[in-house]
Specification:
The chain has seven helices and ten strands. By secondary structure, it is an alpha+beta fold. The chain has two domains: 132 residues, MutM-like, N-terminal (N-terminal domain of MutM-like DNA repair proteins); 124 residues, Helicase, Ruva Protein, domain 3 (Orthogonal Bundle), CATH 1.10.8.50. The structure holds a DNA duplex.
Length: 280
DNA sequence: CAATATACCTGGATGC
DNA sequence: TGCATCCAGGTATATT
């Protein structure tokens, strides 16, 4: 489900419900997520703690506790977070539940269990930054996401540009949907080897990329104003996707038929008119 | 080093 | 209706 915009929309929706609240109880399912549930650390560092704020890095949510501990949540493919009235029936695939001091609960639901929950104790949370820095690439909304940096990262590789955009070690937060959308907006064929891309085209990727991600966050934000009893449907469904999922339909820009192909095992959509593959 | 394959899971859509 | 098959927005690890 979630790429950077959906995670950011989740963060924005959750924040007013969580900031300043004390966690009065923690429960979990017996199922293993991507990693085992850190039961001991949840009891030790999250239960009875006070949430100060929520940050985001790539597709990770960082729920920060007073004193410095951090609850890190990744939504995987199907993970959702929502706020619910405290005595209310749980749902199938609820895997973590934080009871709050206002008779509400935040619940993590994830049918495929590709999501993850980790706890960083206060005395280790300082390493979180370097951990992320080591494993994750450029944030699309940071100043480092610029044409010069992308050009430098790309010049020695022949990776298809879609794989480049989706590689979280290079660029953080762009997933399968937005990769297709950004490349369409930038006029680049998904298979274009990155070392063939010029500075000006990278500038297009930067500009259109930010615009698309921002627009998606805004679209989600408008319907997510109330996150209570979140059905898990942040508003991104209303997003107007221009190529993703539109194989065999006309391109909204030029009318040519949008093609679907598979790249690195992932559905990939592009318009052969707007996104020509450069020839030798 | 780079590209691909596979593994982790459930559920919805599709086809017979 | 039942059953098999394929597909899904992510990531880590193994293998060519």
């Amino acid at each position: 489900m979630p790429e950077l915009p959906e995670v950011e929309v989740t963060r924005l929706g959750l924040l007013p419900h969580l900031a300043g609240r004390r966690v009065t109880g923690v429960r979990w399912s017996n199922r293993r997520l991507r990693r085992p549930m850190p039961r001991r650390l949840l009891r030790e560092w999250i239960e009875n703690g006070v949430i100060t704020t929520i940050d985001r890095r790539a597709k990770y949510l960082l729920v920060r506790m007073q004193g410095g501990a951090v609850l890190v949540v990744h939504l995987g493919m199907t993970g959702r977070l929502g706020i619910f009235a405290a005595p209310s029936p749980g749902a199938r695939h609820d895997h973590l539940c934080l009871r709050l001091d206002n008779d509400r609960e935040v619940r993590f639901n994830d049918s495929r269990r590709f999501g993850s929950i980790t706890v960083w104790p206060a005395d280790e949370a300082g390493r979180l930054e370097e951990e992320f820095a080591a494993g994750l690439g450029i944030e699309p909304f940071s100043e480092h996401f610029n044409a010069a940096n992308l050009l430098a990262l790309a010049e020695k590789r022949r990776l298809p540009v879609k794989s480049f955009l989706m590689d979280s070690r290079i660029i953080a937060g762009i997933g399968n949907i937005y990769a297709s959308e950004i490349l369409h907006a930038a006029g680049l064929h998904p298979l274009t080897p990155v070392n063939r891309i010029h500075r000006q085209q990278w500038q297009q990727v930067v500009t259109t990329g930010r615009a698309i991600l921002e627009e998606a966050i805004r679209a989600g934000g408008s319907t997510i104003a109330d996150f209570l009893d979140a059905s898990g449907q942040p508003g991104y469904f209303q997003l107007r996707l221009r190529v993703y999922g539109r194989g065999d339909l006309p391109c909204p820009d030029c009318g040519r038929i949008i093609e679907k192909t598979v790249l690195a095992g992932r559905a990939t959509f592009f318009c052969p008119g707007c996104q020509p593959l450069p020839r030798e």
